[in-house]
């Protein structure tokens, strides 16, 4: 049986060079350049988290599955007990029974493994800019024409969108949540605390904070936390502010729902799979900051409605389990690794 390798790109590779530094100094960006290339600490990335999760679930099923580190970035901030491999140890000459799983935003990454089966793992809407990420000679080629064999997506939303825009067929392996870890702790909840994650759409977040400053809420903005620390933040929050868009699935709001938060904000597209406005969340059109503040105002004055949303969200997110994800993984990989 072959081995499955999920390719973890070197996301925080530093590009420091004397030429680049001198150029930045001339542009008045010397300190900023040093910050970007010397002081930046690696941070958790949701898409890498899902790759580790897949490897753990596949290993439990008896498959050999490893995150394959393509550089120094390891990406495991999530307490997953998963063995990793390094590209320096494994090399690019895999067998034709092996499988490499490559992120969609680096179209050539998986193609370096000429003999292995190649799968694109689509977790975002970045493929809409596919032509800008490939060489001029390849601009008329989709993922399959480039040399990939299959495509998997983390949501039905992405699978449908990909087919709508490109005609490509993909298999959905829906993101799941560990219900044992991501769970409510009502005794820890701080009334009127609104939690948001920094990192995406900072101008929109700042606008919302400014518009809502007279509201009776305390805002807490966090970034770069380990999974256990993030769960603790979710459990303490009353409301989670979803500000990321566009999104392929929008995992943090679902995690927040599992931990008992009422979700308010943008769906990013992918969040529409589980965020239903007025039923289990309050949503606004992506980028409409005033509408988000209006949603917060509604919850400020209608506590009963807020609790109704919270109860409904707890029911809605139950189906997004790791067991479901594991079944979908087995259904997809079994024919590839155990052909009849």
Tell me, briefly, the overall form: globular
Give the N-to-C terminal Cα separation. 12 Å
Please estimate the helix content. Answer: 25-40%
Summing up helix and strand content along with how strands pair, one would put the structural category as: alpha/beta
Order of helices and strands: EHHHEEHEEHHEHEEHEHEHEEHHH
Radius of gyration: 21 Å
- Indicate the CATH class of the largest domain: Alpha Beta
List keywords for this structure.
340 residues; alpha/beta; Rossmann fold; 2 domains; 7-stranded parallel sheet; 5-stranded parallel sheet; 13 helices; 12 strands; 15% strand; globular
Architecture overview:
This protein has 13 helices and 12 strands. It is of the alpha/beta class. The chain has a 7-stranded parallel beta sheet. A 5-stranded parallel beta sheet has the order 9-8-10-11-12, with helices on both faces. The mean pLDDT is 92.
What's the gist of this structure?
By secondary structure, the protein is of the alpha/beta class. The chain contains 13 helices and twelve strands.
Helix-strand blueprint:
Layout: E1 4-8, H1 18-26, H2 30-39, H3 46-60, E2 65-69, E3 85-86, H4 87-90, E4 99-103, E5 117-122, H5 130-133, H6 143-146, E6 150-153, H7 156-166, E7 171-172, E8 193-197, H8 202-211, E9 218-222, H9 227-236, E10 239-242, H10 251-258, E11 262-266, E12 281-284, H11 289-301, H12 303-316, H13 322-337
Parallel strand pairs: 1-2, 1-4, 2-3, 4-5, 5-6, 6-7, 8-9, 8-10, 10-11, 11-12
């Amino acid at each position: 049986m072959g081995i499955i390798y999920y390719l973890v790109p070197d996301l925080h590779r530093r590009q420091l060079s004397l030429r680049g530094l001198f150029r930045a100094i001339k542009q008045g960006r010397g300190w900023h350049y040093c910050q970007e290339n010397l002081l930046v600490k690696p941070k958790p990335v949701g898409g890498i988290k899902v790759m580790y999760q897949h490897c753990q679930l596949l290993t439990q099923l008896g498959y050999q599955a490893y995150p394959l580190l393509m550089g120094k970035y390891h990406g495991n901030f999530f307490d997953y007990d998963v063995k990793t491999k390094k590209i320096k140890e494994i090399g690019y000459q895999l067998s034709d029974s092996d499988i490499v799983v490559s992120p969609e935003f680096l179209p050539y990454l998986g193609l370096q493994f000429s003999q292995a089966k190649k799968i694109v793992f689509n977790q975002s809407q970045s493929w809409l800019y596919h032509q800008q990420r490939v060489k001029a000679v390849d601009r008329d080629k989709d993922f399959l024409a480039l040399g990939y064999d299959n495509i998997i997506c983390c949501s039905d939303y992405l699978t449908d969108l990909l087919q709508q825009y490109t005609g490509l067929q993909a298999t959905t392996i829906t993101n799941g949540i560990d219900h044992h870890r991501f769970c409510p702790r009502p005794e820890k909840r701080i009334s009127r605390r609104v939690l948001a994650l920094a990192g995406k759409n900072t101008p929109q977040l700042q606008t919302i904070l400014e518009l809502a400053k007279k509201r009776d809420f305390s805002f807490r903005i966090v970034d770069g936390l380990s999974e256990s620390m993030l769960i603790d933040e979710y459990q303490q929050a009353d409301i989670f502010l979803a500000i990321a868009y566009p999104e392929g699935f929008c995992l943090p709001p679902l995690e927040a729902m599992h931990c008992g938060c009422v979700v308010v904000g943008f769906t990013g597209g992918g969040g529409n799979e589980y965020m239903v406005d007025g039923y289990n969340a309050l949503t606004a059109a992506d980028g409409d900051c005033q509408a988000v503040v209006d949603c917060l105002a509604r919850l400020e004055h209608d506590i009963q409605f807020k609790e109704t949303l919270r109860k409904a969200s707890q029911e809605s997110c139950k189906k997004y389990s790791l067991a479901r994800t594991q079944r979908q993984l087995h259904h997809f990989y079994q024919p590839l690794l155990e052909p009849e």
